[in-house]
Amino acid sequence: MRRLFDDIMEGTLDFVLLRPVNSQFLVSIREVVVWRFVDIFLGAGTAAWGCIRLTGHVPLWSVAMFVLMLMAGFTIVYCFWLMLATMCFWFVRIQNIEMVFWNVFEAGRFPVQVYPGWVQWTLTYLIPMAFITTFPAMAGSGDPDRISPQIVVTAVSMATAMFVLSAWFWRAGLRRYSGASA
Q1: What one-character-per-residue DSSP string does the chain give?
Q2: How do residues 129-180 score in pLDDT, each as one tens digit?
Q3: DSSP secondary structure string, 137-178?
Q4: Do residues 79 and 166 touch, judged by C-beta distance below 8 A?
Q5: Rounded CA separation 180/10 (Å)
């Protein structure tokens, strides 16, 4: 997404838009940093080791809920980040929004339960940090009472809604884009 900021500002997004694939898809995957996969594997290994050490075993349903909640959280982060990047179609100087994005996501380093009630609600529904960090961790704990089916349904619904909204927002931004030739 960081590259998208520059492409919109410099007009080089035209090269992406001319390709015969979905532009949102191509913008999202055109630059893959292979070394980031090491972070993913290390994180997955640490989570698996922690769950096994915590409970002695990890039930299959717990692993499935963890993966589902992690996928929903990933989708929410992706959509949130895409919508912020898409704002470059309307605003000229928005590169600093990346710093705002990362600073807001610093709140996700802690479980939402450590915050007061109104902050918990904000970090769950307005800035969906709980669906990105806290709820996947609760799902992977192996305790069936820690995460309710209602939270899982809400996470999947929120991820789906965010995906639809971000795709719509992307298309609206593209209609606003004038390109390098304008």
Answers
A1: -HHHHHHHHHTTTHHHHTSSS-HHHHHHHSS--TTHHHHHHHHHHHHHHHHHHHHSS--HHHHHHHHHHHHHHHHHHHHHHHHHHHGGGT-SS-TTHHHHHHHHHGGGGS-GGGS-HHHHHIIIIIS-HIIIIIHHHHHTTS-TTTS-HHHHHHHHHHHHHHHHHHHHHHHHHHHH---TT-
A2: 888 888 887 887 766 667 788 888 989 999 999 999 999 998 898 887 776 5
A3: HHHTTS-TTTS-HHHHHHHHHHHHHHHHHHHHHHHHHHHH--
A4: yes
A5: 7
Q: Which two tokens stand for residue 30?
A: 């055109």
Compute the distance between CA of residue 37 and CA of residue 50 in angstroms, rounded to an integer: 20
Exposure on the CB side of residue 2, measured as CA atoms within 13 A: 8
Report how far Cα 120 is from the mean position of its chain's Cα atoms.
18
Token pair belonging to 11: 């007009």
The residue among 140, 176, 171, 158 whose CA lies nearest residue 59 is 140
Q: Which of the four pLDDT bands, split at 50, 70 and 90, describes residue 182?
A: low
